[in-house]
Amino acid sequence: MKSARSGKLVVPLVGLLCAACNGAPSVDVLGSFFPAWMVCTIAAVAMAFGVRYFLLKFQLESEVGHVGLFYPCVVIFLACGLWLLLFR
Questions:
Q1: Secondary structure of the chain as H, E, C letters
Q2: Of these four, 6, 40, 49, 75, which has the most CB atoms within 10 Å of its CB?
Q3: pLDDT value at 14 more than 80
């Protein structure tokens, strides 16, 4: 009976020990702190507009296939790349 109680306490204790003590990376924008992932996502959306402009300028957008799938993938790729480049 005693081992069952101690087993129930081990899981929360391990979870507390594995929790990170550092705060999330934040970016100061005009006195307000924003999460780093939000800044990367906003920058990635702006860069995806640049990718679309480039593809339209050289008439390559018809080559990418389904644009409803392509542009969200571009945003995810750019956001993850920016986060790795700037915050890791």
A1: CHHHHHHHHHHHHHHHHHCCCCCCCEEEECCEEEEHHHHHHHHHHHHHHHHHHHHHHCCCHHHCCCHHHHHHHHHHHHHHHHHHHHHC
A2: 40
A3: no
Domain range spanning residue 51? 24-87
Burial group, residue 64, by CB count within 10 angstroms (0-12, 13-18, 19+)? middle
Give the per-residue pLDDT at 40: 95
Please give the share of the chain, as a percent, with pLDDT higher than 90.
56
Question: Chain-wide mean pLDDT for the chain?
Answer: 85
> How many distinct structural domains can be found in the chain?
1
pTM score, two decimals? 0.70
Under a CB-based contact definition with an 8 Å cutoff, are residues 28 and 51 in contact? no
Residue 5 lies in a domain: no
